[in-house]
Amino acid sequence: MSTHQAPGTDPGGTTDSGEVAAADRLRRTKALRRRLLAQLFFELVLPLGSYYGLRALGAGQWLSMVAGGVLLLPWIGYGIVRRRRVEAMALFTLSLVVAATLLSLVSGSPRVLMVRDSWMTAAIGLWVLGTLLTRRPFMMTASRGVVIAKVGEAGLVAWEAQWDADPAFRHHLRFITAVWGAGFLLDAVLRVVLAYTIPVDAFPLTSAVLWLVVLGGLFAFHNTYITRHGLKL
Predict the structure, then answer these.
(1) What kind and span of H or E run contains 175?
(2) What is the 3-state secondary structure (H, E, C) of 66-105?
């Protein structure tokens, strides 16, 4: 009986299986990065560019700011179509865009539109903190996509099993969740302060920079914390 094996395999096919798993993990990681880049473009770059582009063409502050909100609608619609369901966050974002636009029509002030994102980040922050009272805090569910991208479905099962078996694991995830919730609330408060203290034309750029700083700080903390406590996959 021949003992010849095809290159790159062992009797149990372990090497090929490993290569397939690695390729699948790389594919999921790339898909996750593409989704994050698309989100960054449609939720930050496009509204910011549209505001200053319209202002350069002579449009008013109110119209330029409304346009940024309107440009979010196709992105929200795409998310609903792609997932084939209406998610609470998409519905909440849509309601904020509509409500802020109507309120600004009544008041005639673009500053009402400026605090729209503050409502969103405040609501997200309160929701994140509220999950601390549940069996699965925000970070437990929010990390699922990243865990799957790195270690696959089987790795996710093992990762989630730690929640029931390891009290230290639960403590770490709850603490990270609390920090993220506090970060969103801080962003909301600072946005309101900026909305009523700086010139309208300076707000979109300042608000975007603030968000990047807060988000960058949260990610830096997150990465440092999970590395220090052995949670990084």
Answers:
(1) helix 167-195
(2) HHHHHCHHHHHHHHHHHHCCCCHHHHHHHHHHHHHHHHHH
Identify whether 165 is part of a domain. Answer: yes
Is the CB of residue 101 less than 8 Å from the CB of residue 163?
Answer: no
Residues of the domain holding 201: 17-228
Rounded CA-CA distance 41/142 in Å is 21
> What is the total count of domains within the chain?
1
Which of helix, strand or coil describes residue 16? helix
Report the Cα 91 to chain-centroid distance in Å.
16
Residue 151 neighbours by CB under 8 Å, 6+ apart: 25, 158, 159, 233
Sign of CA dihedral 136, 79, 119, 211: positive
Mean pLDDT per 10-residue interval, the chain, length 233 residues: 45 59 68 72 78 85 78 70 59 64 67 81 89 90 80 82 90 95 94 92 91 93 92 81
